[in-house]
Target: Carboxypeptidase-like regulatory domain-containing protein
Amino acid sequence: MKIKFIFFSLLLFSFANSQIISGKIISKENNQVIPYARIGIENENRGALTDENGNYSIDLSNIDTSKKIIVQLGGYLSFEQIVKDFINSNNHTIILKEKVNEIAELKISPKTFESKNIGVKSKAKKMLYGFSSNGSNQAVYREFAIPFSNKKRLKIEKIHLNIAKFKTDKPIVLNFNVYSNKNKQPAESILLENLTTEITEDKIIDGTFTFDLNNYSVWVDKEDFYVSVQVMSGFKGDFGFSAALLRTVFERTFYSNWEKITAGSPAINIDVRIEKEKRPAT
Model:
């Protein structure tokens, strides 16, 4: 009888300390749900993704309640709230506000801007950053960010991913972000729009998947920056980027600290229109 009582007490204790919070993430501007958004805890590798209908369920058990709940998504202002206040809230619908474009676009012409392709261009098949999955929608995939040095004003027109392996049962959802630089690592997102797309085998041409950004406004103004990619959906099969040795990549899971890796990086490169040097008047 005593053993049963102890077991029952342990169950009650476990239930009492369980803090699984469910809710929805929506846009303030149009009240639409936001799929594939990350909700997590600052400096922790724990969190959750919203599903296709904007729903999330996050386990906050044994989390330091003085830390912050964070939601970051390209094109939206960051959401932050103390974990304790978030748990005690009666409403767990998170409302994200869209960013306001305060940067005037420049008219691009061959006289003032030139086209370049920069980044990691390896098409190696045997060296890769790979993922294997059993189809779980709860799978957590790390975010990879590639650094770019820049001293000019430029517009990102296309993002290219060189693919070494793609054998999956369904399309894979990818999310891209562009971060500013602080202390030589990714900092704040500078995107004014959310960059999410699907990759399927037929979209991979000559080993490369291209995400066209010509209809987006992705400008970088005379600063170093980072372009990141993350798998956001579950699948069955194998998927991997080509990789290059001795190149730098930054990695993290949810909102854990960025980890710098210099042994090699995934093949991510971008097409840009970059401002030409102004010639001195003669």
